[in-house]
Amino acid sequence: MGQGQGDYRILHEAALRDYLAEQPDLVTLLGAEPVSWSITEVGDGNLNLVFIVKGDRGGVAVKQALPYVRLVGESWPLPLSRAHYEYLSLSKQAQLAPGLVPALLHHNEALALTVMELLEPHIIMRKGMVAGTQYPRFVDDITSFMARTLFFTSDLALSAAEKKQGIAAFAGNHALCKITEDLIFTDPYRIAEQNRWTSPYLDALAAELREDMELHVAVSRLKLKFMASPEALLHGDLHTGSIMVTDGQTRVIDPEFAFYGPMGFDVGAVLANLLMAYFASAGHERSPGERQVFEDWVLGTVEQVWNEFARKFLELWRDEAAGDAYPISLFAGEKGAARLEAERQAYMRRLFTDTVGFAAAKTIRRIFGLAHNIDFELIEDPKKRAFSEARAVRLARGLMVEAAAAFRTIADVTGAARKLRDWMPELSG
Amino acid sequence: MGQGQGDYRILHEAALRDYLAEQPDLVTLLGAEPVSWSITEVGDGNLNLVFIVKGDRGGVAVKQALPYVRLVGESWPLPLSRAHYEYLSLSKQAQLAPGLVPALLHHNEALALTVMELLEPHIIMRKGMVAGTQYPRFVDDITSFMARTLFFTSDLALSAAEKKQGIAAFAGNHALCKITEDLIFTDPYRIAEQNRWTSPYLDALAAELREDMELHVAVSRLKLKFMASPEALLHGDLHTGSIMVTDGQTRVIDPEFAFYGPMGFDVGAVLANLLMAYFASAGHERSPGERQVFEDWVLGTVEQVWNEFARKFLELWRDEAAGDAYPISLFAGEKGAARLEAERQAYMRRLFTDTVGFAAAKTIRRIFGLAHNIDFELIEDPKKRAFSEARAVRLARGLMVEAAAAFRTIADVTGAARKLRDWMPELSG
Predict the structure, then answer these.
(1) What is the pLDDT of residue B2?
(2) CATH number of the domain enclosing B209
(3) Do B325 and A171 touch (CB under 8 A)?
(4) Mutation target vs B (from A177, A208, A224; most B CBs, 10 A cutoff)
(5) Is A426 part of a structural domain of the chain?
(6) Do B280 and B409 share a domain, yes or no?
(7) Is the domain of A233 the same as that of A368?
(8) Which of A234, A244, A416, B411 is at 20 to 30 A from A142, Cα to Cα?
């Protein structure tokens, strides 16, 4: 901290070794001989450099932001300040959801560099799901993470002054928000250079979405909500590629898209990525029904993620509501308590509607936009992939356009998904 | 600007004269002999010092914030920074709605002092309405002010980055927002030391509101919307006491409550204060029907304020939508244009529902909360006053609880008001 922006330089292996060797706490952790440390660049994300550094005593992960989008190159600049917002939100999440994010070991604002606990033997959850692995801790951990980080940064837990300070502290992260606004809420619905899809099979479906004005209105409402509803501090990119897991542990990583936005965006991201894993599963089976147990687990997990999140969020609201919203003094006595409880349920119904809408937007962008995911991408046969994708899009279109009317409970969502499991859409080409 | 906070001191007459005499532009404007300037303190608001300064060439108005609430005294401190936010919002309003706010002549951040155009012979609109005066320019001017200041600071006109910068720039004004949160959205609905009402006549009605849980839910939803829906830069206190008028001119003053909030709060404030003037009118008549023409004008004005505001706002949206919300590229062709137009209408219906809800909250606070208004207060006979107030409350309760269902157009609101004009409620005492 305190270093000027002018001190930024990209730390490749040698420079990184020298830099870490100057940090006594890290030397203690890694082992006293920097020359013997192994340093491996492992970043498979779209934006940053990520190194794993191991010494004879221990290891760390080092993340450094680049001044551009790694996936695209210097032609797409992106502010280094995102490392600041990532550090700020990680610190907040560590406080609100202890044990569910990597421990922070070191941060250098000028270098846009953060050193964190090395997560080992954790793997990216998305990879595990492609392989058909079940994660028994996942529901409890991710719902605790979401319920606690969202509730405690909302108007239900904070004074209006604290809330406004929080909003202002993250307002500068608008370049990362803009990526979401463009790539999720806009480009997949129009001709855009960066769009791609499983062609030719989904050509007609892509064209259909570009002409579907009900869908355009629905996604535009979601976009406006994303931009102008600072309900809580979001992770902002909570897909299964931002979650590292073992059988017994869950860690949420990479909150560089953090800002104050609508809660349903985070919850919807988790649900969307589970639903995509479900629809992709048919494309990964080597024999019919091979992954049925896994698929049942996925849909059960979709239901439990919503139900447990809602239960924990409501429990926090009942027990720890210190915020300026819904002041308890207006709901005194038995009658007041009953009316407030009914309003809590109504609040959760509105949040559910937001959630399924955002889940739909997150799904469509992964099939027609710039950034795809390996759930679908690793299905080698493009026709099989297109079937899985078309089923996911069919559900997403319904979730977005008919959200409030047709999908009143999470069981309505999983029921619709199950019905589409073996649906054979007409493909182009 | 640039002076430290330590330079603050309260400028009473002599010190103010010395200070103004050091500002060459103001000396030019007022006249070269400071000793001959007349300086009169005229502040009748609740928060600040206001001086009128006149020399042989011209006059100015000087507003200085006090570090506490003037109405209450030093026991209720209030940050001087509100003068900064007032200056910031006045500058923005002057740019967006030229000619509808007083011209800014001088600002001293450290002294929390602003010198403005002297509005003469303008009077506070509320005073004119108590006297039964009609203002032919009012509808056109106030709807231009609202449509332009709200539209051009919204996501419909700004990029998401500009919008977030705007929100952050006003986030520090939370102490003023807190006054609104407490005095408008909370205290009138519970026992609070600062509440008062026309007692004993409204005692039973006050008790009824404190037990009315449907109303408490409705006002709590509005409070949450006020805190967490930064749709546009609001004036934040847009009642008829913040509007100065002549037959031919309208000037909106005193935006120290400015912040990014829900548009309906400003529009609702105007409607509420017109409706209160309507209900108060019966209490000011010396013979039955004496003020009928005025009352018809008021209700006609209520209708026109909404209709003209909506018309101008929609016109701006059609012609000047440069913002990130509802991107035009998603609504191409005839079919797209038609669907977007339908969505604009739906947007205005949602805004109308917000507006009548906020109008109701603004009404109830003036009858049961700390700050009352002279529309009612100048009705000398307390029983007559209570009748007028009870009618306004009856309408407000309906607007807040049944807003979307029962009041679909502004004519529904004025129709309900007209029916209540001669309603004789049962009073206490």
Answers:
(1) 40
(2) 3.90.1200.10
(3) no
(4) A224
(5) no
(6) yes
(7) yes
(8) A416
In one-letter notation, the amino acid at residue B419 is: K
Question: Which amino acid appears at position A4 of this protein?
Answer: G
Q: Which domain holds residue B69?
A: 11-117
C-alpha distance from A190 to closest chain B C-alpha (Å): 6
Query: In the predicted model, what is the mean pLDDT of residues B257-280?
Result: 98
With an 8 Å Cβ cutoff, are A190 and B224 in contact? no
Q: Does A331 touch chain B (CB under 8 A)?
A: yes
Per-window interface: B 340-359 vs A, CB < 8 A: 340, 343
pLDDT band at B5 (very low <50, low <70, confident <90, very high): low
Tell me if B316 is assigned to some domain. Answer: yes
- Same domain as B244, residue B314: yes
Residue A3, in any domain of the structure = no
Domain count for chain A, please give it.
2
Nearest to B224 among A174, A325, A340 (CB): A325
CB contact under 8 A, A219 and B168: no
pTM for this entry: 0.97
Over the stretch B23-73, which tens digit does the pLDDT of each residue have? 999 999 999 899 999 999 998 767 899 999 999 999 999 999 999 988 788
Distance in angstroms (rounded) separating the CA atoms of residues B97 and B74? 36
pLDDT at A404: 76
Does the model's ipTM exceed the 0.85 cut? yes
What rounded mean pLDDT belongs to chain A? 96
Residues 6+ apart with CB under 8 A from B336: A213, A216, B330
| CA–CA dist B429, B426 (Å, integer) | 10
Mean pLDDT of A385-412: 95
Tell me if chain A has a CB within 8 Å of the CB of B326: yes
Instruction: Give a yes or no: residue B6 inside a domain.
Output: no
From B117, B147, B177, give the residue that closes a domain.
Answer: B117
- Average pLDDT rounded to a whole number, residues B172-186: 98
| CB-count exposure of residue A378 (10 Å: 0-12, 13-18, 19+) | middle
Do B213 and B342 have their domain in common? Answer: yes
User: Do B130 and B88 reside in the same domain of the chain?
Assistant: no
For residues B59 and B199, state if they share a domain: no
* A213 interface with B at CB cutoff 8 Å: yes
